Fold:
Amino acid sequence: MPSSGGRVNRGPAAASENRQAILDAARRLFTERGYRVPLSAIAKDAGVGQGVLYRHFPTRLDLAFAVFEENFAQLEVIAADPDAGAFGRLWERMVHLTVESAAFVEMVVDARRSTTEYTGGERLHALVGATLPRAQAAGLVPVGATVDDVLLAHRMVYGVIATVVAPADLAPAVERALHLLRRAPFG
Structure:
């Protein structure tokens, strides 16, 4: 019997691998090309058909929320560390993920008005709130800094990311903003 020579459809057995391939491709392409990249390009990059993509993520926003869930999983691991330095690691990872996931953030910000059930803001508040007091008790962060201060600084960093015109200017602009924020009460 002749072989098909192409990919073998493994059906449901490949579902979790396909889902992860889609998420990885989405991260990569949204980072490179912005959140308006065609979903067909994501499916192609992931090596799956568009039907598979839509089966996992019926909308572009569902895809963004899935990326955010992966991001939150990383942040939750950091916040669970009882070490006083967890706040600094959490902050650094938040900034990195915001740079990496800026297109997803933009999508969610656009959709937030109609997607009132999303609790990402509250979850982020809780993660910072869990780590900030330990850092303050260890003298790593001034006592006067609040969770709201940290989240405002995070939004400021996102603002820099969202308004940079030339991709080559992104890293220097974020670094300059972080330098200015280091002078802030929690920097």
Summary: The two ends are 67 Å apart (CA to CA). Residues 59-182 form one domain. Confidence is low (pLDDT under 50) at residues 1-6.
